[in-house]
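Q: I have 202 residues here and want to know how they pack in 3D. Can you give me a structure?
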Amino acid sequence: MGRKSSNVVWHKAAVSRADRERRNNHKSVVLWFTGLSASGKSTLAHAVEKELHELGCNTYVLDGDNVRHGLCSDLGFSLEDRAENLRRIGEVAKLMTEAGTIVLTAFISPLRRDRERVRSLFPHRDFIEIFCDASIEVCESRDPKGLYRRARAGEIPDFTGISSPYEPPVNPELRCNTGEDSVEHNVARVLELLRERGIIPR
């Protein structure tokens, strides 16, 4: 990582976040979906986005695989690289909330310290941690990319849940039982939380 320049000054925008939120008729926020590989993070994030889009909301999903094709293509999967991956995602998500967008992220984000570091970038209540809770057994039974099988065979080092740790959230804003409950049920729970918090209108 290069040294931070001392000549960079934050430029105040002529159009504020509040201006954008008023035009959008909803507040901006980050929905941070975390959980094991194949726990249903991407599935739930995209399903929630579809419902929000139908409601006329300004949304965008930052998905783990997609981000690693570009913004984080130089990073591997060590704990250090994962931390940097999440730092970059957090900064991008912060910019997008300033643009008035509901940002949905789908990343394993295995360590609590890294998730809390991202949370610290945002004002209170602008970061909503959603734990996609599915057991390792359920995730392995799904294994859409064959990653668990390869990890068990020693072909993938630093694989979360097998050879690298996953630390479940202690107090997430929402816990979704993605191992047993339907996608529709969990989507409804996320939307209800957004309504309760006044992020989207009832």
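Q: Anything worth noting?
A: The chain has one domain: 17-196. Strands lie at 29-34, 59-63, 102-106, 127-132, 174-176.
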